[in-house]
UniProtKB/TrEMBL annotation:
Active site: H97, E170
Binding site for substrate: N9, W10, K11, G176, S215, G236, G237
Catalytic activity field: D-glyceraldehyde 3-phosphate = dihydroxyacetone phosphate
Gene: tpiA
NCBIfam families in alphabetical order: tim (TIGR00419)
Record's keyword annotation contains Isomerase: yes
GO molecular function, one term: triose-phosphate isomerase activity
Family named by the database record: Belongs to the triosephosphate isomerase family.
PROSITE patterns registered for this protein in UniProt: TIM_1 (PS00171), TIM_2 (PS51440)
Keyword Nucleotidyltransferase: no
GO-annotated cellular components: cytosol
Listed InterPro entries: Aldolase_TIM, TIM_sf, TrioseP_Isoase_bac/euk, Triosephosphate_isomerase, Triosephosphate_isomerase_AS
Protein name: Triosephosphate isomerase
Alphabetized SUPFAM superfamilies for the sequence: Triosephosphate isomerase (TIM)
Length: 251
């Protein structure tokens, strides 16, 4: 059975002490984590060392990186390698998050290399995709999502499985704005992502989890996770407090 993946992206928030306190509180609030859910927390690199062991205390809870550089090691100033992260207990990673695409200037080709390198290194990868408001208004949603999926998965068409890959649909206009996509918008985008995944990966595409992200809160999470082709959520702002993220996880 496909488990829901309930993921937190803490972005560039929290000191180490705050991250540790939030992770501890979260693990205790999730004492009765339902069998059908997994929890992933993606903290800043600086606290990975302290947060991983706390999450590891709870079955079904995992730590993920928000980013990494696709090389085993080397002269890449300011970057972090998958092996370094996995050595701390990190099991998952995001690639192609909207802020990396639109603020840090990451292009499709680099994102595709990250997905392939991360999978090969042994990380479970979450490829993030989503259209901007301008692309939506121009009627380019499907074109954008297809391009991001095709380039993001180009190097893993024979190696990606439902166990090691997930896709997060995060419409850029819904991230951090409080403007959540409506059920019809989520249904349409996720159906398109599902169809594209099954055409790119005929064996695994139907089982690969598709998460929704963008202004997910405790009061809309239950509706969102019950929509067709929604297999979890990726939460920013509302994941920073253990109390609100635990309400989302248990929604
Ligand atoms: P918000 O939940 O703050 O809209 O952020 C979504 C996001 O970017 C998760 O990766």
């Amino acid at each position: 059975m496909k488990k829901l993946l309930m993921a937190a992206n803490w972005k560039m928030y929290k000191s180490v002490e705050e991250g540790v306190a939030t992770a501890r509180e979260l693990v205790s609030l999730l004492d009765k984590l339902p069998e059908d859910r997994e929890v992933l927390v993606c903290p800043s690199f600086i606290m990975m060392h302290s947060v991983c062991p706390i999450l590891a205390q709870k079955a079904g809870c995992y730590a993920g990186a928000q980013n990494f550089y696709p090389a085993a090691q080397g002269a890449f100033t300011g970057e972090v390698a998958p092996e370094q992260l996995m050595g701390l207990g990190c099991t998952h990673a995001l690639a192609g998050h909207s802020e990396r695409r639109h603020v840090l200037g990451e292009m499709d080709e680099l994102i595709g290399r990250k997905v392939a390198f991360g999978l090969d290194a042994g990380l479970k990868m979450i490829l993030c995709i989503g259209e901007t408001i301008v692309e939506r208004r121009l009627g380019q949603i499907e074109e954008v999502l297809a391009r991001q999926l095709e380039s993001g998965l180009a190097g893993v068409l024979s190696t990606a499985t439902a166990q090691n890959l997930a896709v997060a649909y995060e419409p850029v206009w819904a991230i951090g704005t409080g403007e959540v996509a409506g059920p019809d918008e989520i249904l349409a985008a996720h159906a398109f992502v599902r169809a594209t995944l099954t055409s790119l990966l005929p064996k695994e595409g139907a089982q690969i989890r598709i998460l929704y992200g963008g202004s997910v809160k405790p009061d809309n999470a239950a509706t969102i996770i019950r929509l067709d082709n929604v297999d979890g959520v990726l939460v920013g702002g509302a994941s920073l407090k253990a109390d609100s993220f635990s309400q989302i996880v248990l929604a």
